[in-house]
Amino acid sequence: MDRKRIETADFSETGYSYTLSLIAGKYKPIILYCLMEYEPVRFNEMQRYLKKVADKTLSQNLRELEADGLIVRTVYPQIPPKVEYSLTERGHSLVKVLDKLCDWGMENRK
Question: Can you say whether residue 36 is alpha, beta or left, with left for phi > 0 and alpha for psi between -120 and 50 degrees?
Fold first, then answer.
């Protein structure tokens, strides 16, 4: 059996690396999990769910997830403005991965 050679390997070219680049960080996996469980979610609801996250940090993470095509931001033309976030089809395709993380955590939780 041939072993893969690490000398010629490039982690940045793997699917694992790409997936991590989309969901990496302290809040992105939690945001995705929140939307998976409760969508659609308003900004203030998300902030309460995440507890001690700054407005700027949450906004930045939501913008990045939106730019990566994982969530959609819907603005309703009313006063006061209403904005909701939900998963895109691409975001929903990550649910299987997030579910597996949840399963593993429940099975290995002390």
Answer: alpha
